[in-house]
Hints:
- The chain is of the alpha+beta class.
- The chain contains four helices and twelve strands.
- Strands 2-1-3-4-5-6 form a six-stranded mixed sheet. A six-stranded antiparallel sheet has the order 7-8-11-10-9-12, with no helix packed on it.
- A hairpin with a 5-residue loop joins strand 4 and strand 5.
Amino acid sequence: xxxxLLKAQGLVVCFVLWVLSNxxxxxxxxPVIGITTIKAPVNDNYSGxxxxxxxxxxxxxxxxxxxxxxxxxxxxxxxxxxxxxxxGLNNEFGDGKTAGGGFNVSGVDYLVYGAITKLGQRKKTMxxxxxxxxxxxxxxxxxxxxxxxxxxxxxxxETVSVEHxxxxxxxxxxxxxxxxxxxxxxxxxxxxxxxxxxxxxxxIFPIEVVKGGTxxxxxxxxxxxxxxxVVNAYKPGEELIDEATGINLGAEEEFEGELEVTQxxxxxxxxxxxxxxxxxxxxxxxxxxxxxxxxxxxGKPGQKRGRKI
Length: 309
């Protein structure tokens, strides 16, 4: 009886160890990213306009988008502050080794720094005879840096800019109509957060075709792509290396075709060919235009609705 019990306990222990080992093996080795405090040098609380970029709101949106991408482990905001605080104190008063020391931020692969550098609105009007139209465009820009936490090297530095129609109106004769967004700043911040997440994610894991055919499957879903996005497909070629410095300059790319995203899910998207040749598995994808940034009220950006001039 005692031997039977020990044998049963041994089997249970072996099963638990097997489950844990398989879970550990199944867990992907994803980069760990910490998003630092987003700054807003555009804020001006002393002028009549009183610009408020709501940078905390934008940072929350960016954290959400990065988590939805599913290709990173995101460090909680308070943990990032704690790590950076420990590192700063150690570098100032310690031996430069504890808590990573120098640029070596313990437990983090990449740090994201950002600042909102543009926020404003401009009017666009047209009038002829008894007919007049007006639209209000909101403009938003953010400068983003992705830093290697172990070396301090800036791996990516880009400016993400978004222009979005936030209100519009028309008048003709005795008739007039207007429409506008309830919170245009939040709307444009969400679009910008999605573009920043795409910038960071695709610099490490490019958008690729995972299955060709009449319906083309892409390896990113709703966290990066939207229905109606227009993208270009390229066939990757030989890598170009600068012999003097050893720097990888990228690779030759052969344009294949233009695609339109027709459906998005949480993890992948479907697209159809608009022009050119159908891409095959492994082809690289570059976003050409975002459907969310279409400021036109009719048709697609640049689409002619009549005979071309």
